[in-house]
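Q: Can I see a sequence and its folded structure?
A: Here is a first one.
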Amino acid sequence: MPKSANQKRKLILLQNYLYRQTDEEHPANARILMEELARSGITVERKTISSDIQTLTDAGMDIHCRRGQGGGWYVGARPFELAELKLLVDAVQSSRFITRRKSEALIQKLSALVSVPQEKALRRQVHVSERVKTVNERVYYNIDALHDAIATKRGVHFRYFEYNVKKERVYRRGGTRYTVTPCALVWDNENYYLVGYDHDKGDTRTYRVDKMEALGPDETIPYPDTCRDFDLTQHSQTHFGMFHGEEAQIRLRCENAMVGVILDRFGQEAMLIPDGERHFTVTVPVAVSPQFFGWLFGLGPAVTILSPERARLAYQAQLQAVAHAAEQVHSFA
């Protein structure tokens, strides 16, 4: 093999070996690197190794040298630190919208960004098979397609389904395709949701991405003002659990201990008005839905609805319906 070809291969082999096999705790000395090159049929002198390391360093590779016994060269800075990759691995394996197979593939790619010894530490926390995962393999690609539609301001069409008690797909609207202009993607409660303008219904709706099927672009849909003026922060604060509901200005009376809860839910901009020594009131925009009532119920008597009257009465009706259902179950038992 010509010397120039060997020289090119030598630098690539050294780069790959240093990147994948070394780190601060696992340096490689000249002897180890010479043996690695010899396995590929390349014979070099010890002094040549130092020259090649300098060439890689000049090219931008962050290579450090530790002197003394047990020393050698190792790669320092990488695109991601090990602690950062552990966070990404946790996010991948805990995300329900990513299938087990895709999770394992993504984690394998993330593992290639560290040395082999560090990869073992990274993979010690992987328990993908024990997590609840979606079975819709297309969701990963649907997310990418929806991001593209949002960036290019194009519409999409898709079929939307739920599951029955036999775990069979049941298509909404009789299997007719939904025609939607995407406004934003939201990751909430371990699921991805699309917030978009439904051209058939004439308003903004929310859809679980893993329940979409046969997603495709639709360039015939006009771009609505709703998406142009869409405020994701306001939408997230208003809607509970990504469920649709009539939007209203809800006035709440809260115990002082609930200040943190209210600010976490509605943001620092919420205006808190003292109401005596132990309470305050706040008026917030809310999409009134059973999920909002569920959030309110979880806070107990510490938070109550003052107005509007229709929201207060709807909450009372919800509580009465739950109490009635519990009584029926008790009677049946």
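Q: Show me another, different protein.
A: A second, unrelated one:
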Amino acid sequence: MGFNTAIFYDIENLLKGYSLSQRMLSNLSLKEILEAIRQTGRIGQIAVQRAYANWSDPRLAIMRGEINELGIDPIQVFGFSREPKKNAADIQLAIEAVDLAHVRPALEVFVIVSGDGGFASLAKKLHEYGKTVIGCAYRSAASKTFQAVSDDFVWVTDPDEEEREDRPTSQVCVSGQPEVTAPINVRLAACVKKITVISPENIINKTREILDWYAKDPTTRNDLERHGIYLSVVQEAVKYAIPEFQPIRFGFTKFIEYMQFICRGSEFCITRCPIHSEVRLVCRRSIRSGIEVLPDLDTKDLHSVDGYKAILATGSPIFRLPATNDLYSVLNWIAHNPIYGADLGAAIEATVTGLNNAVPSESVKLALLSLVSAGVFEREPEGVPLSEQKLSLRNNIGSASEIVALLKTAARQKLIAVLSEIKDDVLELLLPDVA
């Protein structure tokens, strides 16, 4: 294919207006986005990569290392990071894409990493020039018009998706009892009692009881056989009937994966509409043409290094641990070169430089964010986002082994909160003592 591909990143869109929550900082990875684009098999070698943002905003310093490592050109756009108008990056991106279509005829594939509907017009214009257009965005934020006119669309994980799933979907009545809002769940709540003893077996049985009720109720049975029930409605019912429900108890980071497990061997399955990204519970024998059937899943072994890492990377506090060698290189560096009064971006850059670029900036970022979650740093001022705070290593920390001990304690607390009990030998494999 040759050097035929240009990729344009709308950073403002990816960051949802620079919200930069700690979950966003931990889970947003341009490297993973780029890999997802490559997996389409529709791009050749990359000739142009540009990322549009107000790079003078100090909060974006956390992304500079990854931008450099991936060979992405940062394009400076002023005037929108803290102001109501947010289309400056869109306009500049569109102008440069059309310009490149003219002056670089060898470019055949244009990838637009954004869910903004305004790029539908850009896609149409590029089609007039005979170019292939690939969109790339979060499912929850992608314009349906942009999807429809793109030749292919790459879905990337929304960094805030798990956080939204963790939030309770129910309201609370004056009586203190959870209240469901979907009409079919209002009827279900009158028939299906809430679980009283939380155990994996009881959780599975109660979820299947909910599905059985849907199958027997005349109205919902008709829905299941015609077009299905939105998974968000099913999730509301499950969270109502199973207080403090967490899919990670079964090794799944998302509710959709848990339901793919529950449907295993049953008359139900989980489907997704490729055009509208709608996920539903349906009867297997009633699948309509053009609907994607998601595979059934089996449970995962939670008491393993991978299982513990999945739990730690889900929910709050978040610990998205890099490879052990990278993590411990960072811990040793921090112990011997304490951070005082530095923002996260500066801390990442100083650590990467101090380690002579032997550890990727993405790994350094994940390591530092995990230390933040473990309380290794003082954070000032209070009450503002992490991206606007200054970090200082706590005064009572003097060695890498002490940092590991704090990280291990915090990890153990989170694991026990989810699993009730853990295997210390597995935790030791995940976070071994410093030699």
